[in-house]
Specification:
The chain is α+β, with helices and mostly antiparallel strands and 234 residues long. The chain is built from 10 helices and 5 strands. The protein starts with 6 loop residues before the first helix and ends with a helix. The N terminus is likely disordered.
């Protein structure tokens, strides 16, 4: 199941939108193997080239062992209902069984398709990353989710979350006001569109041989397990 509403917003995200906002101045698996081409040295005309950087760049710090044989990439929106479902129903099990055991490493990438609060939440996570707490901020966002565009990810609440996880609030606030990480968020959204994603969450599993499997929606643990176990046999 894929979040579809407000998709047009994702198509027009820009640095200006990202910088503007903080403190207001004021069910069936769809798997597809992708062909990953080497990064081109010269920009080619025509369709965007999909390279390994399309998956790995412009995202979160790696969660797990950097040498894990399998990489799981999630494109998500912090306001997305089904992203929240995945976080609460499946992610912890993946962490316990595969990430903490050194088999899988995770990367989260932004695909902001719902509204300005989604962009601000993404920026909050990247500013938290400046202090080494990206994943803690990621988790507190999803732990406080109450819906889409209803104010739970307001500027005031984002600051409260930063304080709750022990961030230096002055440094974090300065990062937010200056829009320090606007470009990485824009670039991540561009990566999502290059991959022709139509909603969130969307996942890519990259195996030890580079084979890439795409999954759409808040799939149950069993779906991820099947792919992980197949890749671990290689």
């Amino acid at each position: 199941m894929i979040h579809g509403p407000s998709l047009a917003i994702g198509g027009v995200i820009s640095a200006a939108v990202i910088i503007m906002v903080f403190f207001g101045f004021n069910g069936i698996t769809n798997q597809t193997e992708l062909i990953i081409e080497p990064s081109p040295t010269i920009q080619q005309a025509g369709p965007t080239q999909i390279t390994m950087n399309t998956f790995l760049a412009n995202g979160s710090p790696i969660l797990g062992d950097v040498n894990a044989p399998i990489t799981l990439i999630e494109f998500g929106d912090y306001q997305c209902h089904f992203c929240n479902v995945f976080f609460h129903s499946t992610e912890d099990d993946i962490l316990e069984k595969y990430v903490k055991t050194g088999k899988v490493k995770m990367i989260f990438k932004d695909y902001n398709i719902i509204g300005p609060d989604s962009v601000n939440a993404s920026h909050g996570a990247h500013c938290a990353n400046d202090q080494g707490l990206f994943w803690e901020y990621h988790d507190i966002l999803y732990s406080n989710w109450t819906g889409e565009n209803n104010g739970w990810a307001s500027s005031e609440n984002l600051a409260k979350f930063a304080q709750e996880i022990g961030l230096d609030l002055d440094k974090w606030s300065e990062c937010m006001i200056e829009g320090t990480h606007s470009q990485i968020i824009v670039a991540s959204n561009e990566d999502a569109r290059s991959l022709e994603l139509t909603g969130t969450p969307a996942f890519f599993v990259i195996g030890p041989d580079g084979k890439t499997t795409k999954l759409f929606g808040a799939q149950p643990l069993e779906v991820f397990e099947r792919i992980f176990e197949e890749e671990l046999k290689k």
